[in-house]
Design goal:
Elements (H helix, E strand, L loop, with lengths): L3 H29 L2 H9 L10 H10 L2 H5 L7 H6 L24 H5 L4 E2 L4 E2 L60 H4 L37
Antiparallel strand pairs: 1-2
């Protein structure tokens, strides 16, 4: 049986051998690094989305058709808007057939990704706020029956109050959560939107530079002591 001091000595000797072998390799790699290439990689690294995915807002703005962005006519009302939803904020149902007159199934993003006028439905198509999620029917469904198969006492959530501002004339707060609704253009710009929430200045780009989410319901109180 070896003595503890002998085992400890072997351990330090092995550690020293590894250090002697590895140190020249580390020094060589350190001097062989091209600083310019490293800085180029850092400078060209993709920047993370900011301000609740505001980059998506800019991207969608650039890809939305001018006819949709500049269009002013719309027949949609707030009552119709909420009639498609079980409660404010829920995914709307699909209010039209899923196949055309030739029996071909519609591709949702072919109309809802960029908006524009749909001749077959004689209306402007609203833009989806999340075109990156292509499996639309995972959340949006086509009702198969008009009547509930069983009675319910469900009472819908009241819609948020519009136009709330901290001061008279200041930008109104965002009265709803931003999850899955990061793209303001989808609901607030173009002829496919609802008139009471339609804005006239989408060219200003980052909506959330002035409009902030209403995350605090009550003012905080300060203890004077």
């Amino acid at each position: 049986m070896e003595k503890p001091d002998l085992k400890l000595g072997k351990f330090f000797f092995l550690f020293a051998v590894i250090g002697v072998i590895a140190l020249p390799i580390i020094i060589f790699q350190a001097f062989s690094v091209n600083t310019g290439e490293v800085l180029a990689k850092v400078n060209n690294a993709p920047v993370s989305d900011f301000d609740h995915n505001a980059r998506q807002l800019y991207h969608t703005y650039n890809n939305t058709t001018p006819a949709y962005m500049e269009g002013a006519s719309t027949a949609r009302t707030l009552n119709y808007y909420y009639s498609l939803r079980q409660y404010p904020g829920s995914p709307p149902i699909i209010p039209h057939d899923m196949v055309d007159e030739k029996g071909q199934e519609y591709v949702c993003l072919s109309c809802h990704e960029r908006g524009g006028f749909t001749q077959s439905m004689n209306r402007f198509t609203p833009v989806t706020p999340h075109p990156q999620h292509s499996n639309c029917e995972q959340c949006h469904v086509k009702p198969v029956i008009k009547e509930l198969f069983q009675g319910t006492d469900w009472v819908s959530v009241q819609p948020p109050k519009l136009g709330k501002s901290a001061l008279a004339g200041s930008p109104p707060v965002i009265a709803h959560p931003l999850q899955m609704r990061e793209n303001c253009i989808a609901c607030h710009v173009g002829p496919g939107t609802v008139v009471p929430i339609r804005v006239e200045h989408p060219m200003r780009g980052n909506c959330r530079q002035c409009h902030v989410p209403e995350e605090v319901r009550e003012l905080f109180s300060r203890n004077p002591k």
